[in-house]
Amino acid sequence: MPSKSATQALSHQWRQHIEDWRNSGLTQQAFCRDRNLSYHKFHYWRKKLADTPVAKKRPRSSALVPVTYQAPSPGNGLSVHLPSGISLRGIASDNLALVKQLLASLS
Predict the structure, then answer these.
(1) Residue whose C-alpha is closest to residue 12's, from 56, 65, 48
(2) H/E element holding 45?
(3) Residuewise pLDDT in 10s, the chain (107 residues)
(4) Phi/psi of residue 78, nearest 5 degrees
(5) How far is it, in rounded angstroms, from Cα 54 to Cα 59?
(6) Whose CA is closest to 45, among 5, 3, 16?
(7) SS3 for 79?
(8) Per-residue CA distances from 24 to 14, 18, 19, 27, 35 (Å)
């Protein structure tokens, strides 16, 4: 069984391989082929290191997405009750196209 320092060195080595792969723009298989690495070992270490607390502490990138708020129409709007028991509520002039699509798909 390898010593703790040997395991840490191996872990560090595979972290570096994985970081190099991320920066390479190559597929995992192409990267392993170019570096003469076992693809199966690469995959194993990538999964193993992704489950470590160090990997989980990395900040995740996020992007802001613009959101447009549209106030609901005043009142409850109209309702349609179909013989099958389905009810469509809140029908207003701004969602008639959607209501037409729903009715077409239900008939």
Answers:
(1) 48
(2) helix 39-50
(3) 567 788 888 889 999 999 999 999 899 999 999 999 999 999 999 998 887 665 555 566 667 878 777 766 566 678 888 887 888 788 888 888 888 888 787 76
(4) -95, 165
(5) 11
(6) 16
(7) strand
(8) 15, 10, 9, 9, 11
User: Could you give the CA distance from residue 54 to residue 89 in angstroms, rounded to a whole number?
Assistant: 50
Please name which of 44, 45, 48, 26 lies closest in space to residue 35, comparing C-alpha atoms: 26
As a whole number of angstroms, the distance between CA 55 and CA 93 comes to: 50
Q: What is the DSSP letter of 52?
A: S
Separation between Cα atoms, residue 13 and residue 41, nearest integer Å: 12
pTM attached to this predicted model: 0.46
